[in-house]
Design a protein that fits this description.
Layout lengths: L3 E7 L3 E7 L6 E4 L4 H11 L5 E3 L5 H4 L2 H7 L3 E5 L11 E3 L4 E4 L2 E7 L8 E5 L4 E5 L2 E2 L2 E2 L7 H12 L6 E4 L4 H11 L4 H15 L7 E2 H7 L8 H6 L7 H14 L1
Helix pairs in contact: 5-6
């Protein structure tokens, strides 16, 4: 049976995700911004929390861990490179590592840039990619610790996945990201169509996360630094994609 994934809104604009294996009954949560909504969703579904998968050390992704551990006997998984500033880990993982959850292999990718030691988790059988604050819906995370070159390389890892991959990112930033994207890539018909969809969803308080990797490739300017139209709009025709990405990220920082 396929894994079931539930989006859990937290705080003002964060998301956690429950990953449930119907066969074993195990449930993992990807990031824990706050415990209350996660516990409520688990209770409503009659699920017990088995594992906590942490993508990076920022408070709005880990603050709920102590309360969850007080309520459930859960294994905590996080980056070995980030062990000094994460909650106590039961399993420390690095780029290229994998582990099994519910009979499915979970692959670890180092996607440093937003922070050093940020990881993403890829479940190829379920076609799910948990990216938190690396690849985001119509954006990418601000570079608090890493360099543009690091983030660019990290995003190349995520775009190597199949088109049908679903991207579960960590925040409801899509509407503001869309405004910026339209300034960088104003004539992209796929982006124009996506903005209409985003506007309708947010008007009805519907989440815009997750998204498909195919859609991100077609509309996310941070994945399109190679695109001639974007390069022309930035007066960077023929520039190396990493340099175009660096310029896009700098403009977003000033946006």
């Amino acid at each position: 049976m396929p894994l079931e994934i539930i989006t859990v809104p937290c705080l003002s604009d964060n998301y956690a995700f429950l990953v449930h294996d119907p066969q074993s009954g195990k449930t993992a949560v990807v990031d824990a911004p706050e415990a209350g909504p996660i516990k409520a969703e688990l209770s409503q579904r009659g699920w017990e929390l088995s594992e906590i998968w942490l993508t990076h050390h920022h408070d709005d992704h880990i603050d709920g861990v102590p309360e969850l551990l007080a309520a459930y006997s859960a294994t905590v998984v996080g980056a070995k490179a980030d062990v000094h500033r994460l909650p106590k880990l039961d399993r420390a993982v690095s780029d290229g590592d994998s582990f099994t959850f519910g009979g499915e292999v979970v692959h670890i990718l180092d996607v440093s840039g937003h922070t050093i030691g940020h990881i993403a988790l890829h479940l190829p059988e379920t076609a799910a990619l948990f990216t938190a604050d690396s690849l985001m819906a119509l954006g990418c995370g601000r570079l608090f610790e890493g360099t543009p070159a690091q983030m660019f390389a990290s995003l190349q890892k995520t775009t190597a996945m199949p088109d049908e991959t679903t991207v579960y990112s960590g925040h409801e930033y899509t509407a503001s990201n869309a405004v910026f994207a339209s300034m960088v890539d104003p004539e992209n018909p796929a982006l124009i169509s996506r903005i209409l969809d985003i506007t309708a969803k947010r008007k009805n308080s519907q989440p815009t996360v997750p998204s498909s990797l195919q859609l991100e490739r077609a509309t996310n300017p941070f994945l399109r630094a190679h695109d001639p139209a974007i390069q022309a709009h930035l007066n960077m025709v023929g520039a190396a994609p990493v340099d175009v990405f660096t310029e896009i990220r700098a403009r977003k920082d000033r946006f």
